[in-house]
Design a protein that fits this description.
mainly alpha, 8 helices, 68% helix
C-alpha cells in the first residue's frame, strides 16, 4: 500500500524520536569525526525530510536502508575538500605562501578554466551539477526538485563532470 507524504513523514519522525542517537551513531560508524556527527545527523535528517516523497516503501527496513544511504552520502560529502564555492571570486581563494609561485600560477590557470567551463555548461547540465556537487544533494533529491528521474540526474551530472574534466588539460595548452 502506498502512503501519502504525511504518513511517510510520521514514520520517519517516529523512527527518529524512537532512537534519537541513531543517525549520529551511524555517521560515526561510517567514519565521521565524532565532533561532526551531530551536524551530519542533522543534514541527513534534513535531506531525508526534503526527499521523503520519493521513498517507495515506508516500512521499517526500507526506511532504515534509505536513511543509511543518505547518511553514507552525507559522510562522504563532508569528507570531500571544498576548495571554493561556485560564484566565489577567484581572488578570494586562498593560496599559501609556502607554495611555489609556479604552482600557484598553474593552479590559478586550472581553476579559471574549470570555473569558465562550469559557467558555460548548458542549464540542463548546470542545474543538476550545482545541486549535487555544490549543494551536496542526492540524485533522488535533485530528481524530485527537477521533476526527472534519478537516473537522468546522474547522467546529466556525469556529462557535466566529463565536460569540466576535459577543461583541465586544456588549461595547460
Amino acid at each position: 500500500m502506498r502512503s501519502d507524504g504525511k504518513d511517510r513523514r510520521a514514520r520517519l519522525e517516529a523512527m527518529i524520536v524512537g532512537d534519537p542517537g541513531r543517525l549520529r551513531r551511524r555517521a560515526i560508524s561510517l567514519g565521521a569525526d565524532p565532533q561532526d556527527a551531530d551536524d551530519i545527523a542533522q543534514t541527513v535528517l534534513l535531506r531525508a525530510w526534503r526527499s521523503i516523497d520519493t521513498l517507495r516503501s515506508y516500512d521499517g527496513g526500507p526506511l532504515c536502508a534509505w536513511l543509511d544511504v543518505i547518511a553514507r552520502n552525507t559522510v562522504l560529502d563532508a569528507r570531500r575538500p571544498r576548495l571554493f564555492a561556485v560564484g566565489q571570486p577567484l581572488e578570494d581563494v586562498a593560496f599559501t605562501a609556502t607554495d611555489a609561485v609556479e604552482t600557484n600560477v598553474d593552479t590559478r590557470l586550472v581553476m579559471e578554466r574549470v570555473i569558465a567551463e562550469i559557467r558555460s555548461l548548458p542549464e540542463i547540465f548546470l542545474v543538476p551539477f550545482v545541486l549535487t556537487v555544490v549543494e551536496s544533494r542526492s540524485a533522488t533529491e535533485v530528481a524530485a526538485v527537477l521533476g526527472i528521474t534519478p537516473a537522468a540526474v546522474r547522467q546529466r551530472v556525469s556529462r557535466a563532470r566529463k565536460s569540466v574534466a576535459a577543461a583541465i588539460p586544456a588549461a595547460f595548452d
